[in-house]
């Protein structure tokens, strides 16, 4: 049975109606995966997923990303990551606290985990505690934007790659934040600037707040080009802004969509749970590797 959908935005994204995501199975997943390939972003409202359902859904997309595997004791289970300003004592983190500053780094347009040896295919966000004002999550279609981009600009980047580094996006918010060990764990990663979806054949610009250089281009030319491309693909006409309600599940294709949070009053608690899955060969990952080391 075909799923009932309605557009989120004229250029990308659909809301899927009447689908309960609990207890997801490979069988039921096939139709969702087809929508994901085609539309790049999926919204489901009024869902009742617990952490186990969240993990089960994520596993249908691919291997679950576990950035803290190295700091967990053997045998300890994976815990669903939270994007939250609520501290263990229930208070909210102060605006200039490093924890809040890290949340602010999410307000720079990015694709998740481009700084990892294997980047993310998707992020499945579930709203647990929402704010009265602000705190939207915005998505920008780098597929739609790339398709509109003038050839003069495309040709400057088409056969090139971007270098990505976690600490780079953090340093843009606070040099002190960038120094934390958790942002220094991985060597710089080089990814081709254009990701071709192997299912649909559609291309998208693959860029992020973590991108600090263009391979083979001098530093100032590279950063100017990164800024120019970022401005192009995040123009309002490519952006969908989602205002959260508890129970919303938002899923997007990191190969073809940038995302960011918008500010809120930091006294207000906000909590999303988030599971990223890693991109695989079937998602076109191998073609993204340029195979040279950054010097
Ligand atoms: C994330 C992220 C944005 C938000 O979870 O990767 O960037 O709106 N979240 O909190
Ligand atoms: Mn993110």
Explain how this protein is built.
This protein has about 300 residues and is of the alpha+beta class. The protein has a single domain (about 5-290), classed as Double-stranded beta-helix (4-Layer Sandwich), CATH 3.60.130. About 25% of the residues lie in helices and about 25% in strands. The chain contains 8 helices and 15 strands. The chain has helices at about 25-40, 50-60, 100-105, 140-150, 150-155, 165-170, 175-180, 220-235; strands at about 5, 15, 40-45, 80-85, 120-130, 135-140, 160-165, 190, 195, 205, 210-215, 240, 250-255, 255-260, 270-280. Strands 1-2-3-13-5-15-4 form a 7-stranded mixed sheet. The protein has a 3-stranded antiparallel sheet with strand order 12-6-14. The radius of gyration is 18 Å and the shape is globular. The model has no long low-confidence stretch (mean pLDDT about 95). It binds N-oxalylglycine (OGA) and manganese (II) ion (MN). N-oxalylglycine binds near residues 123, 125, 259 and 274.
Question: What shape does the CA trace take?
Answer: globular
Q: What is the CATH superfamily?
A: Clavaminate synthase-like
Overall tally of structural domains:
1
The overall average pLDDT, rounded, is 96
Bound molecules: N-oxalylglycine, manganese (II) ion
């Amino acid at each position: 049975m075909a799923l009932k959908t309605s557009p989120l935005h004229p250029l990308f994204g659909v809301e899927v109606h009447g689908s309960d995501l609990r207890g997801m199975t490979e069988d039921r997943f096939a139709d969702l995966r087809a929508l994901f390939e085609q539309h790049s972003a999926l919204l489901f409202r009024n869902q009742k997923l617990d952490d186990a359902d969240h993990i089960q859904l994520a596993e249908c997309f691919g291997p679950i990303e576990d950035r803290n595997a190295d700091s967990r004791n053997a045998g300890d289970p994976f815990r669903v990551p939270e994007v939250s300003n609520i501290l263990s004592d229930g208070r909210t983190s102060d605006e200039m606290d490093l924890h809040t500053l890290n949340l602010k780094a999410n307000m720079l347009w990015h694709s998740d985990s481009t700084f990892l040896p294997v980047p993310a295919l998707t992020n499945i966000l579930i709203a647990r505690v929402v704010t009265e004002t602000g705190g939207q999550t915005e998505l920008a279609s780098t597929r739609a934007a790339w398709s509109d981009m003038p050839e003069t600009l495309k040709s400057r980047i088409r056969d090139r790659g971007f270098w990505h580094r976690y600490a780079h996006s953090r340093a843009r918010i606070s040099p002190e934040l960038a120094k934390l060990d958790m942002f220094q764990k991985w060597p710089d990663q080089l990814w081709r600037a254009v990701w071709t979806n192997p299912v649909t054949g559609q291309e998208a610009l693959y860029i992020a707040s973590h991108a600090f250089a263009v391979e083979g281009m001098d530093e100032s030319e590279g950063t100017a080009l990164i800024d120019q491309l970022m401005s192009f693909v995040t123009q309002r006409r490519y952006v969908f802004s989602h205002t959260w309600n508890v129970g919303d599940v938002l899923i997007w294709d990191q190969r073809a969509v940038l995302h960011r949070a918008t500010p809120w009053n930091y006294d207000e608690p906000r909590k999303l749970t988030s599971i990223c899955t890693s991109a695989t060969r079937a998602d076109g990952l191998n073609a993204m590797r340029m195979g040279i080391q950054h010097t």
